[in-house]
Amino acid sequence: MTAPGEIIHTGAAEYPGLDRWRELPLKQQPDWRGHPDFQSAYGELSTNPPLVFAGEVDKLKNRLAQVAEGKAFLLQGGDCAETFDDVTADKISAKVKTILQMAVVLTYGAALPVVKMGRMAGQYAKPRSSDMETRGDITLPSFRGEIVNGFDFTEEARIPDPKRMVRAYHNSAATLNLIRAFTEGGFADLRAVQQWNKGFMENPAHAKYEQIAGEIDRAVQFMQACGADFESLKRTEFYAAHEALLLDYERALTRIDSRTGQPYVTSGHFVWIGERTRDLDGAHVDYLSRVRNPLGVKLGPTTKPETALELIEKLDPEREPGRLTFISRMGAANIREKLPPLVEAVRDSGAKVVWVTDPMHGNTITAKNGYKTRRFDDVMDEVRGFFEVHQAAGTYPGGLHVEMTGDDVAECLGGSDVIDESAFDGRYESLVDPRLNHKQSLEMAFLVAESLTKVS
Ligand SMILES: O=C[C@H](O)[C@H](O)COP(=O)(O)O
Ligand SMILES: C=C(OP(=O)(O)O)C(=O)O
């Protein structure tokens, strides 16, 4: 049996310091190192092929360096928690389609390239506020994402099972394969994406976006008339991102890049550290400081300016362009007060990070009928606050990070095609946090495009 923290030699990449995290406080993990299947699952992941290639990861870092310079915009979107059952062509294509649609609208608004990234192909681990969940008089371990345990409220389902990491790996591979096929194989054709957006405009609830939708349409027609190379516009880059929460999984999928001799997390192109695990002396910050991927860190309302600066020091000591993205998730009520000191401190330090807004996680409420939800108006208010703060500080609002889906779910309240609480029964599918549905996601893109048109 392996003691917690013991280094397991199963072929996983060896690199000086890479295993230092094992000696540090490690939050939000299942207690499964003694499970009879742990070693074999870890071993299998350690020798499986990487899901992404380090060269692609470097390319993304270059794209993010452009964002940090204010020359591109970043869109990160996808599920709160991916599920194994949702690894289907329909669900994946709906998500990719929605992100591409949003990206076209944002590209027009920003008049800049949009870096497209899914919370996809790896977003299987969830941090929880509480280790236990109680329903009636039964208390069981919390659901921690399908990479760890099952959602069903039974004792058996909630036992962490390391074999789930292997299933998550294979599901991520299948998802990534389809994303690559879609985005390389013609699905991303700008003209097709524009046709999908026309479908959105047919709903009278969206008439207020007519002007900007018409402008985009004319721009596409103009490009066509000028003989623009639509062949090259049939393909697009699309990157995979997830929270690097489960360090056994991330460690097992770390590989040494044969070109540079440097370690990369190969479970996705971009990984982020969550609000609950970003302790300066914790295992997550240490581990991710040692891999070469571009990294995100979530910053909630309790973040102090000096913490943001120390995170830069730890995660990006070389000040490498595109290395670090700060994803603020303050809540609509806080952003105008809490974000400015952070943005100003980072600006004054001379460090260049990408600033992204996550307008979801600070705006969670419980609906009267018990569902976890978010109001579309609060989400949009936080986005507006984000732009205002950056405008006042003379810094660049670099992107959006949203929990969304391509399906017609009812999880967040509001939007022009209004969702109210009565729609939750039957159309609420998320296993953890509420997502914007397809229409709400596009509506957000139109609203952000309007703000960007004013900024640019
Ligand atoms: O997605 C984020 C977190 O996992 C989630 O907000 C935690 O939710 P909880 O407070 O229900 O545990
Ligand atoms: C858990 C998440 O966010 P945060 O760390 O900001 O709470 C998330 O993005 O899934």
Automatic annotation (TrEMBL):
Pathway: Metabolic intermediate biosynthesis; chorismate biosynthesis; chorismate from D-erythrose 4-phosphate and phosphoenolpyruvate: step 1/7. Phosphoenolpyruvate binds at R119, E275, R276, K298, R329. GO terms for molecular function: 3-deoxy-7-phosphoheptulonate synthase activity. Its cofactor is Mn(2+); Co(2+); Cd(2+). Transmembrane segments: none annotated. It catalyses: D-erythrose 4-phosphate + phosphoenolpyruvate + H2O = 7-phospho-2-dehydro-3-deoxy-D-arabino-heptonate + phosphate. Its EC number is 2.5.1.54. Pfam families: DAHP_synth_2 (PF01474). Binds 1 divalent cation per subunit. The enzyme is active with manganese, cobalt or cadmium ions. Keywords: Amino-acid biosynthesis, Aromatic amino acid biosynthesis, Cadmium, Cobalt, Manganese, Transferase. Mn(2+) binds at C80, H361, E403, D433. GO terms for biological process: amino acid biosynthetic process; aromatic amino acid family biosynthetic process; chorismate biosynthetic process. PANTHER family: PHOSPHO-2-DEHYDRO-3-DEOXYHEPTONATE ALDOLASE (PTHR21337:SF0), PHOSPHO-2-DEHYDRO-3-DEOXYHEPTONATE ALDOLASE 1, 2 (PTHR21337). Belongs to the class-II DAHP synthase family. This is Phospho-2-dehydro-3-deoxyheptonate aldolase. It comes from Nesterenkonia sedimenti. The lineage of its organism: Bacteria, Bacillati, Actinomycetota, Actinomycetes, Micrococcales.
